């Protein structure tokens, strides 16, 4: 293996970059004693790490008997090699104190920040230690792309790997990839050839705004106050998932998702109701399609548990709120809500976007805003990487009359992007409410 401080694997989807890294790491662990720090930006559960990849590769190679695999660590019995798993966002200070690290494997490194790299780089001080940096490029402006691809530092080996380099792909997935190429060449090159996007002006919420909002309450030294809400996105098709996001005022505190069939709505409603009872929160639920029946379940659950959990319908296609107000009250020339937004979903996404932008300006530029004009996301939330991806993915779109709307799930599917369940639940948790979506009779 050619000596190098930094080993960078980047490219598109279905290229097996992480699988190859896991296999090679397992091989090295059987040959000599190594300490491997497996890191990613957000990791609140071991399942969010490369732990599962390593475990699968160990089994594939028939080496299970050689390793001690616990719930949060992997060690080789003979060589003493060990794999440790950390989330950079919450444990960067703890990582600084680690000694004797041979390999720091940074998975999904597109979220790596310069501040984190400035801490990590001198932390690996053992002779011959190295970084494995693996990612699918997002934007040309992302730190990791600029640092290792655009301006590659000395003592770095970089290799682009795409699906064409993976001989194990099925004929089915190859047909999917070819279909994407025919549908949208630009999206195909980004998703499957790993070509970064030049900007994100087409999306409703910029990624940089969302990243600035992670733990913004700590950065700005603001404590959450006010109402508590749970946004509930109901699974509406076979491969979809239910999702919830809970908040306390401007702070998102909990993120959850689970697989549920259409005929399991009662079970899912019970799960959401339990979260609301635990947090003493109200519920905002998707009332379209399958979700139309959720309200009746919440009413029955209120009666069963002798509680009064308020629940509110969110009809994505419903009319906008305050139609005669301007979208920017400070600008008398800005359009009216009724002339700018196609529906309440668009109005809600733009409102959340505005609050994310305010948060970015508060964190990065020191501008002052009231707490209810901001949004913060606790780094302790599960599924944080995907939440960030989903919130920063939908593009601006327009209806036949030129009013703004959110890119539809159908159009996202054409871009080979799954339904943004977490993002939809997030927006519902922060969406403005109409007075007619809830009555006291609903609390049973």
UniProtKB/TrEMBL annotation:
Positions of region (Disordered): 395-416
Q: Which domain of life is it from?
A: Bacteria
Which part of the chain is the Phage terminase large subunit N-terminal domain? 6-195
Q: What is this protein called?
A: PBSX family phage terminase large subunit
- Species this chain originates from: Phyllobacterium endophyticum
> Pfam families this protein is in?
Terminase_3
Q: Read off the InterPro entries from this record.
A: P-loop_NTPase (IPR027417), Phage_terminase_lsu (IPR006437), Terminase_L_N (IPR035412), Viral_DNA_packaging_terminase (IPR052380)
